[in-house]
Amino acid sequence: MSTNHAPKRAVFLSFLLLFVTTLGGFAQAAIPAPVTGTIVSVNGSNFTLALADSTQKTVMLLGSTLILERDTAAVDQIKPGDAMGVAARRSGMDLIATSINIFSREMWDVVRKGQWPMTTGEVMTNAMVSDYVQGLNGHTVTMKYADGTATIAVPDGIPIHRLVSMKREALVVGMQVVVRGNAGSDGTLTAGSVSFDGPAKS
User: pTM to 2 decimals?
Assistant: First the structure.
């Protein structure tokens, strides 16, 4: 991964850490660090991943494995009914969004829902959009979750991505991916999710 993408990638990975019960059969408490690499071969439901240290890992895909393309989105594409994950900083009593991921339906089914503080000092809100307003002072999104609602200001220029569920055929040789899963005794990684950045939009 390029250095320019590292902060955005780190924020995105924080969302993958927050699956509520299981993802591909893996308990939240046991989720290991993600593995990043380049696909060098594909064989049915398995593929081989080359890592930055020149080692390789075999990755096994299950029927429940989420394949996620991360596409750049615009703030005006947010609409009521979207399920989103919003990282935000506090400014007094206000929340100011620092990054937004719009979840696919399949990912929304498994992510942790609600609002909680992150180790970075920011606040994470995974919830449904109930209202989206473009006003004189910028954009505001209202999100509803089981314990209440959150109104979050959305500044211009923050990273916004839409996570699109894909078929496993989207995984091809040469693609850079991030894999999260459990490693077996032989080093094979059984994937709970595989994510990759979609093509840049002009």
Answer: 0.78
